[in-house]
Amino acid sequence: MNVGNRYGEHRVIYPPGALPQAAQRLDNQAPPLDNEIGITVQALHITSTSFYRLWNEAYEDANNLANKIKEIVSSRGKFQDPVTGSGGVLKGVVDFVGPALNIALKVGDPIVTMVSLALTPLRLDQVYDVHPASGQVEVQGYAILFESGLWAILPSDLPVPLAMIALDVAGAPAYAARHVRAGQRILVIGGGKAGMLCLHEIKKHAGSAGQVILVEKNADRCQAALELGLADEALNLDATRALDVFSQINNITNEKLADVSFNCASLPGTEMATILSTRDDGEIFFFSMATEFSRAALGAEGVGKPVRMIIGNGYLPGHAEIALRILRENKPLRDYLSRSLA
Length: 342
What we know:
By secondary structure, the protein is α/β, with parallel strands linked by helices. The protein has two domains: 9-154, no CATH class; 171-340, Medium-chain alcohol dehydrogenases, catalytic domain (Quinone Oxidoreductase, Chain A, domain 1), CATH 3.90.180.10. It is 33% helix and 25% strand. The protein contains eleven helices and 14 strands.
C-alpha cells in the first residue's frame, strides 16, 4: 500500500521535518494516500479569534474576506491565520477512505473535522457566502485528513451550522465536564459560544452549592447567561482591565477567588484578569486562541500567583459527544445559539 506518515509529515513542503501545524506550506494537490481520508469541502468554520481579526482587517466586507481566505489557502496549502496561528474546522462529504484505515466511515458520509484547519491540507476552488454571525464560510474545495486526524459524523437531528459551532469548541466543555467539582467557585472569561457551552457543563457539575461567575464585555451576553440559568453572577466587565475584574471577583467571592477558571475570550490581553481572579493553587484552563502564554507565565510569576495554568487541548475522548449532548439537553441554550446565527 501507498501510505504516508500517520501525523502528515509527508505533506509538509516547508520547512522540512516540521509537522503540519507548524509548517508554512503543505501539499494540498496530491491525491489521498491509502491511510488518508479525502473530503469534498462545503464549508469552513473559522475560530472566532481568527474570523473577527480577519473580518476587521477586511473592513467588514464579505468579498474582501473571501479574497483573504483564498490568499491564505493558496500560499499555505491550508487555512491558518498568519497572525494567531489558529484555523477552525470544516464540513464536507467523504470522498475517499484509504484501504489501510480501519474506521467506521464510508464514502458519502457527512462529516466535520475535529482537528484544526491549521494542519489540514486544503484546496479551495470557490468561496461563496460569508456568514459573520457564525464565522462560517461556504466554499467548494477538497481536503485531506491524516490517519491521526479526528472527525465526527454530522448528526441528523441538529441544524448543521449549530452542530459545527459546538464541534469546533468541543474541547472546552469537555474539560469543564472532567475538571469541575460540586461546590467549587468557577470563573469563565468570555461568554461567546465556547463560554456558553462551558457554562452549561460547569453549572451542572458545580451544583447548587457552587458559585459560577461569568465575566463578559457584552451586556446582552451577560443577561443571556443569567436568563438561561448558566451563571449565578454575570459581570459586564472588560477582561483586559485586570484589576477591575480582580476587584469584583474578590468582592463577590468574599476574597476566596475562583477555584477553577476557564478563559474562553476571543480578544487578547485577558490573561492577567484570569490569573489574579484565581486563588493560589487554583487551576486555569486557557482555551482562548488569543492567549499569549509567555505573558501568562511571566505575569503569574510577576504577581506571585502559584496557579496551575493549562493549555486547553481541543481534544478529550468523547468531546464531540459531550458538545452535541449539551445542545440536545438544553433547548433554551440551543435556541439562543440558533438565534445568534441569524
